[in-house]
Design goal:
Strand order of the largest sheet: 2-1-6-5-7
Helix content: 25-40%
Mean pLDDT: 94
Order of helices and strands: EHEEEHEHEEHHEEHHH
CATH class of the largest domain: Alpha Beta
Shape: elongated
Largest sheet: 5 strands, parallel
CATH topology of the largest domain: Alpha/beta knot
Structural class: alpha/beta
Strand content: 15-25%
CATH architecture of the largest domain: 3-Layer(aba) Sandwich
CATH superfamily of the largest domain: SPOUT methyltransferase, trefoil knot domain
Number of strands: 9
Distance between the termini: 47 Å
Length: 243
C-alpha cells in the first residue's frame, strides 16, 4: 500500500522508518512518499501562507502550492486512483472502522495543515476529512502518523502475528481484555488462576467477559454499536450481578 503525504515538514515522518513500519517499508509492504508544497512556490521565501481575507489573526494556507503538490502525486501515479484525506480538527473522528476501510486501498493521500488552517477551496480537492479528536494540534502531521500506523498494521505481514490485529481493542468494537506475562506474582499481584489453568474454553470465556467488563466501565458508548451475541448478553448480566 502506498501512503502519500502532503506536508510542510517531511522530516517529521522519519519515525515511520522505525519498528514494524520500518520493516514493512523495507519489505515493500508499504510505501511512504512525502512532498512539501514549498517546492511549488515561486518566491525566494517559498511562501505557502498569507493573511486571511476579511481580517483576523493568524495565517491561512494558500491553495496554489497544495493543489500543485496533489497534482504532482497524480502525475507520479499516472492517474491511478487514490483516496485524499484532509487532517483537520473539524473532520470526522478517526476510528478503527476508518483504518479498516483505508487498509483496503492501494493508495491514500494525506494532506497535513498548519497555522490557522486551509483556504476553504482546498477542501474541494479531497474526499474526506478526519480528526484525532476534539482538540487542536500544531499541525496535521501527528494525526497523519496515527492514521498511517492504524491502517498499515492491518495489512497482511506488517504484524508478526496477524491475529494480533483481530484481538486488540476496538477490533470488534470492544476494548481488549487484560493481559499478563511472567512473573506469576509481581509485588503481591498475581495472575488470574483461569489463565494458568490450561482450559482454553474457560480462558476464552474469561477474556470475553473481561473485555465486556472493561468496555462497560470505560467506554459504555461502544456497547451501543457493538455486535453482541446471546452469550455476550448473558456475560453482561453476570457482570451486572457482580457489581
Amino acid at each position: 500500500m502506498r501512503f502519500e503525504i502532503v506536508t510542510l515538514f517531511p522530516e517529521l515522518f522519519d519515525v515511520l522508518d522505525l519498528g514494524l513500519l520500518g520493516k514493512a517499508k523495507d519489505a515493500g509492504t508499504i510505501e511512504v512518499a512525502t512532498i512539501t508544497p514549498r517546492d511549488f512556490t515561486h518566491d525566494k521565501h517559498r511562501t505557502v501562507d498569507d493573511g486571511p481575507y476579511g481580517g483576523g489573526s493568524g495565517m491561512v494556507l494558500m491553495p496554489g502550492p497544495f493543489a500543485a503538490a496533489l497534482d504532482h502525486f497524480d502525475a507520479q501515479r499516472r492517474g491511478a486512483p487514490t483516496r485524499r484525506v484532509l487532517l483537520t480538527p473539524p473532520g470526522v473522528p478517526f476510528s478503527q472502522s476508518h483504518a479498516r476501510r483505508f487498509s483496503r486501498l492501494d493508495t491514500m493521500t494525506l494532506v497535513c495543515g498548519r497555522y490557522e488552517g486551509f483556504d476553504e477551496r482546498i477542501r474541494s480537492w479531497v474526499d474526506e476529512e478526519v480528526s484525532l479528536g476534539d482538540f487542536v494540534l500544531l499541525g496535521g502531521e501527528t494525526a497523519a502518523v496515527a492514521v498511517i500506523e492504524a491502517t498499515a498494521r492491518l495489512l497482511p505481514g506488517v504484524l508478526g502475528n496477524d491475529q494480533s490485529a483481530a484481538d486488540e481493542s476496538h477490533a470488534e468494537g470492544l476494548l481488549e481484555y487484560p493481559q499478563y506475562t511472567r512473573p506469576e506474582v509481581f509485588r503481591g499481584q498475581g495472575v488470574p488462576e483461569v489463565l494458568r489453568s490450561g482450559n482454553h474454553a474457560a480462558i476464552a470465556r474469561w477474556r470475553r467477559k473481561e473485555s465486556l467488563r472493561r468496555t462497560l466501565a470505560r467506554r459504555p458508548d461502544l456497547l451501543e454499536s457493538a455486535v453482541l451475541s446471546e452469550e455476550d448478553r448473558a456475560l453482561l448480566d453476570e457482570i451486572a450481578r457482580e457489581r
